[in-house]
Design brief:
Blueprint lengths: L8 E10 L2 E11 L4 E5 L6 H8 L7 E6 L2 E2 L7 H5 L2 E4 L11 H12 L4 H14 L15 H13 L5 E5 L7 H16 L3 E5 L3 H7 L2 E6 L2 E6 L1 H4 L6 H10 L1
Helix pairs in contact: 3-4, 3-5, 4-5, 5-6
């Protein structure tokens, strides 16, 4: 049963292995309501795997993930129901190339949420307007820039009415000049009070919008805290080394 007072995301002693390779080695943290948590760290540190475990796109090896009071690692959990509350935006957009922008936004609304076509289309239009793409409603993905594809993917996730959003390096596949338009949309979500967990390499964005930064390395949380502490005055040697290379 959903607990309105529970932190939206609680991760407890999470382990994930692929064969003999242990990718997550006992992750513990939570994301509070309306909080923006940016997860940073070197490639291969387990950031994306962590995010994919949160909505069970990857099956945890052990540990618990509790979404709004529901333990989605429980064998009896209704994972599909919980997923309707979690919007996910991927690195590579994951749009259906053979469907128009409008259809990309309405297909899951109609199949999963059982909304009527007029209701689904009205919600899709509102969210395309929100990300500045109402004029692309009849376009196909291959006629969009990378930034427009990612904004479409965000609008699609929002059209499901999620309580929280997960972003997996949403700008890393974009040309540098297109990054800003996606970050602008994400800033708008922050202003609207959306609970967000963002895996990112965009340190300026993390500094600006994150309530908390989590630094991961080698499958573990090395350090976490407000951006002013983590980015300006990290305590751990590993965090200092990482930041000295990228800042």
């Amino acid at each position: 049963m959903m607990d309105p007072n529970a932190p939206p995301i609680q991760i407890r002693d999470l382990h994930k292995s692929f064969g003999d390779l242990e990718v997550l080695k006992g992750i513990d943290f939570q994301v509070n309501s309306r909080e923006v948590v940016c997860v940073i760290g070197p490639s291969g540190s387990g950031k994306s795997t962590l995010l994919r475990c949160v909505n069970r796109l990857e099956e945890p090896t052990s540990g618990k993930i509790i979404i709004e009071g529901d333990d989605i690692t429980d064998i009896d959990a209704d994972v599909d129901n919980v997923r309707t509350r979690i919007g996910m935006v991927f690195q590579q957009f994951n749009l259906f190339p053979h469907l128009t922008v409008l259809r990309n936004l309405t297909i899951a609304q109609r199949k999963v949420l059982k909304r009527s076509r007029p209701e689904a289309e009205e919600i899709a239009r509102a969210n395309l307007d929100r990300v500045g793409l109402l004029d692309k409603i009849d376009s196909y993905p291959n006629h969009l820039s990378g930034g427009q594809k990612q904004r479409t993917a965000i609008a699609r996730a929002l059209s499901m009415g999620p309580d929280m959003m997960l972003f997996d390096e949403p700008t890393s596949a974009l040309d540098p000049e297109l990054v800003g338009e996606v970050l602008d949309v994400m800033r708008g979500l922050v202003e609207d009070g959306m609970t967000m967990m963002v895996v990112t390499h965009e340190m300026g964005f993390a500094r600006e919008v994150a309530d908390r930064i989590v630094f991961m390395d080698d499958g573990m949380v090395v350090e976490e805290g407000p951006p002013s502490e983590i980015l300006t005055n990290p305590q751990r040697e590993r965090t200092k080394r990482f930041l000295s290379m990228i800042l």
